[in-house]
Amino acid sequence: MKRNGDTKRRRNVAEEAEHGGEDPAMWENLDRNFRQVQSVLDRNRSLIQQVNDNHQSRMADNMSKNVALIQELNGNISKVVNMYSDLNTSFASGFGKNGHDGGGAAGTRA
After folding, report:
1. Which of 21, 62, 83, 102 satisfies CB 3.0 to 4.6 Å to 54 for a cystine?
2. How far is the C-alpha of 20 from the C-alpha of 56, rounded, in Å?
3. What is the pLDDT along the chain (110 residues), one digit of tens a residue?
């Protein structure tokens, strides 16, 4: 599913890379990874809607289908966590190789 702001956001990423002196490949990689994350989040939205619809139907068959849907949703949440972790690492290392410190506290948890 395309969003109206996608093209504008990609253009802004490319322009920022040109004007900011950062590695354009790094920005393209980050943009690609964010789109992959968004794809999983969109799938999760669909799964949640299916689970809700099945639950509201109160049909035994539909309720049993929710087990598999919720398992997929749980797996997708783990994927998103890993994807964001990878994005954080890519972003921090991308800035680190260009002489930036990456903000110092990247990747820390409270």
Report:
1. 62
2. 51
3. 555 555 555 555 555 545 555 678 888 888 999 999 999 999 999 999 999 999 999 999 999 999 999 999 999 999 999 999 988 888 787 776 554 444 444 444 44
Length of the chain: 110
Q: Using CA atoms, how far apart are residues 64 and 108, in angstroms rounded to an integer?
A: 39
Rounded Cα gap, residues 34 and 83, in angstroms: 9
Q: Taking CA 30 as the corner, what is the angle to CA 24 and CA 33, rounded to the nearest 5 degrees?
A: 140
| 0.70 exceeded by pTM | no
Residue 69's φ and ψ, nearest 5 degrees, are: -65, -45
DSSP 107: T
For every residue of 65-86, DSSP letters joined together read HHHHHHHHHHHHHHHHHHHHHH
